[in-house]
């Protein structure tokens, strides 16, 4: 499953159902990507044809397959009115990398309620970056130990994965421990222990 960042360009909407019968409604959009939610500004008084031209960025992780847009009408003193919604599959985006601003049908109660225009861009996360993110736990511990052994010569050490150790290896390429550094079954590099470690590029 692709991982990376999703950029959403919220352009405008047209032909929305006006939920304020006496005045132009004040629409805004709630964007949901799995558990992440963001909200657009309120297009005050723009009625059925609002414009936003706003960008939003979401993190794409395992299990993300769609983007949901929920259009609401902001009301003062009363509950906000539901205008309609759109669910956009991200399968094509993961393949193409980007989709130019495209109009999608807004639906409410199974009926067409206008259109909303959205552009999408997906930037895959580099494999090395994904490994960095996962290095803090035991999930990648086998790879972690292999890297430690190869880079620092800790062939017989049983090390507990810590972000600190991996960061040093990543940034400086090689980690050398002074001879006075005793390798224990589980090593935690605190601030004072880091001072006893020699780093060379």
TrEMBL record:
Transmembrane segments: none annotated. The keyword Metal-binding applies. The keyword Cytoplasm does not apply. SMART domains: C2. Keywords: Calcium, Metal-binding. Residues 1-103 form the C2 domain. This is C2 domain-containing protein. PANTHER family: 16 KDA PHLOEM PROTEIN 2 (PTHR46502:SF2), C2 DOMAIN-CONTAINING (PTHR46502). It holds the Pfam family C2. It comes from Canavalia gladiata (Sword bean). GO terms for molecular function: metal ion binding. Gene3D superfamilies: C2 domain (2.60.40.150).
